């Protein structure tokens, strides 16, 4: 286990961020843990330094770095994407400009050796794919319909391109990006609550497509560990040159539970964990082609096709694609270079998550 000395978790009061904080604290190795957030009211932990700051205010960022003096920076901040909130401009500002501001501060900070960015597995250009690799082309068109992920693709590249092998006190910084797929777990405020709302509104008997496509999910604790393992690897590389072909610096990593599920089977497991008898289900199946065509065309489409209580104004083709297209990812790179292993299974993760929400 590599000592990280001090870690600044940007967005450390959010869903993924506070799980990273918990995993760092659980190491009990004396690592100083700091959190930067616009509001530090949620998920506070004793022994953590909480600092208020904005990604879009460089003076604010500098004051946080002066106080935290981080050895490692982990940026987990992202706008809410499920249900989708914000404009393309707001996503660009937070994902791209905010990350760029942090990278400049990290490069200038004499104590900072490593920077890990939370990207997304869904930044690929392809929308229907099996066992995607990190080298596959990504969508970097921030003005397109997929701007929540395409702006993360831009930030992903900026982060990796910022990596260098200079000494730390000369502006040296080792960087990597973590690309998690659909993430769920305790204190989830997006994916599982939206699925559970289907039961509350008696909408569980509508299904898009034949439920034959495979989709990747990942438990949030596994994602937290992946971030920490990436940080450890980068810190090691800052002191000892990595073997050629085995460096983590400048690389990206898909993170999943390596256990693809049919999307509706995952939802049924969530409902069952909440006490619903899935044997009662007799869903009306809407053909995929019709669902993709309808998109947000009507109130009926919004009612029948969304996972939660969205208005038709927020329904998108992207929502339908998540439900009925294949999206699985190869995690062999993370296993090989980071030593990543998904410790908590999908089913155990669902049990823990539903218990925390109900």
Quick overview:
By secondary structure, the chain is of the alpha/beta class. It has helices at residues 15-26, 58-68, 88-108, 147-161, 191-200, 220-239, 263-273, 288-294, 299-305, 317-324, 332-338, 346-357, and strands spanning 6-10, 32-37, 49-52, 72-75, 114-118, 129-132, 174-180, 182-184, 206-208, 214-215, 217-219, 251-255, 261-262, 284-286, 327-329.
What would you note in describing this structure?
The chain folds into two domains: 6-187 and 214-259 and 327-344, Rossmann fold; 200-210 and 261-324, no CATH class. It has 358 residues and is α/β, with parallel strands linked by helices. A seven-stranded parallel β-sheet has the order 3-2-1-4-5-7-12, with helices on both faces. A two-stranded parallel ribbon has the order 6-15. 47% of the residues are buried. α1 (15-26) packs across α6 (220-239). The model is unreliable at 296-315 (pLDDT under 50). The chain is globular and about 65 Å long. Helices cover 39% and strands 16% of the residues. It has helices at residues 15-26, 58-68, 88-108, 147-161, 191-200, 220-239, 263-273, 288-294, 299-305, 317-324, 332-338, 346-357; strands spanning 6-10, 32-37, 49-52, 72-75, 114-118, 129-132, 174-180, 182-184, 206-208, 214-215, 217-219, 251-255, 261-262, 284-286, 327-329. α1 (15-26) links the parallel β1 and β2 (32-37). It has twelve helices and 15 strands.
Global morphology: globular
Number of helices: 12
The structural class is: alpha/beta
How much is the average pLDDT? 90
Distance between termini?
36 Å
Order of helices and strands: EHEEHEHEEHEEHEEEHEEHEHHHEHH
Rounded radius of gyration (Å): 20 Å
Second CATH tier, the architecture of the largest domain: 3-Layer(aba) Sandwich
CATH class of the largest domain: Alpha Beta
Beta percentage is 15-25%
GO molecular function: oxidoreductase activity, acting on the CH-OH group of donors, NAD or NADP as acceptor
Organism: Aureobasidium subglaciale (strain EXF-2481)
Domain 3-beta hydroxysteroid dehydrogenase/isomerase: 8-280
InterPro entries: 3Beta_OHSteriod_DH/Estase, Lipid_A_modif_metabolic_enz, NAD(P)-bd_dom_sf
């Amino acid at each position: 286990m590599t000592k990280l000395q001090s870690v600044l978790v940007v967005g450390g009061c959010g869903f993924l961020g506070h799980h990273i904080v918990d995993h760092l604290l659980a190491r009990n190795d004396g690592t100083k843990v700091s959190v930067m957030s616009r509001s530090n009211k949620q998920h506070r932990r004793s022994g953590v330094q909480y600092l208020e700051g904005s990604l879009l205010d460089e003076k604010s960022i500098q004051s946080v770095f002066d106080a935290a003096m981080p050895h490692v920076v982990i940026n987990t901040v992202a706008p809410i994407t499920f249900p989708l909130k914000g404009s393309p401009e707001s996503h660009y500002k937070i994902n791209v400009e905010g990350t760029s501001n942090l990278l400049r501060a990290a490069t200038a900070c004499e104590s900072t050796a490593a920077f890990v960015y939370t990207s997304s597995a869904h930044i690929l250009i392809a929308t229907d794919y099996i066992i995607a690799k990190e080298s596959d082309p990504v969508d970097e068109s921030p003005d397109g319909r997929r701007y929540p992920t395409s702006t993360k693709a831009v930030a992903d590249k900026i982060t990796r391109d910022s990596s260098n092998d200079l000494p730390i006190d000369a502006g040296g910084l080792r960087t990597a990006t973590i690309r998690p797929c659909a993430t769920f777990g305790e204190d989830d405020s997006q994916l599982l609550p939206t699925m559970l709302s289907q039961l509350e509104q008696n909408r569980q008997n509508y299904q898009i497509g034949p439920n034959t496509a495979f989709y990747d999910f990942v438990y949030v604790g596994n994602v937290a560990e992946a971030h920490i393992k990436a940080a450890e690897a980068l810190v090691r590389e800052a002191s000892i040159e990595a073997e050629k072909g085995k460096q983590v610096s400048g690389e990206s990593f898909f993170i999943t539970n390596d256990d693809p599920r049919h999307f509706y089977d995952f939802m049924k497991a969530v409902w069952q964990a909440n006490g619903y008898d899935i044997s009662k289900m007799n869903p009306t199946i809407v053909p995929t082609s019709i669902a993709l065509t309808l998109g947000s065309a009507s109130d009926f489409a919004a009612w029948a096709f969304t996972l939660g209580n969205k208005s038709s104004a927020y329904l998108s083709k992207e929502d339908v694609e998540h439900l009925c297209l294949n999206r699985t990812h190869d995690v062999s790179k993370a296993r090989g270079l980071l030593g990543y292993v998904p410790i908590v299974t999908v089913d155990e993760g669902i049990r823990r998550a539903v218990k925390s929400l109900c």
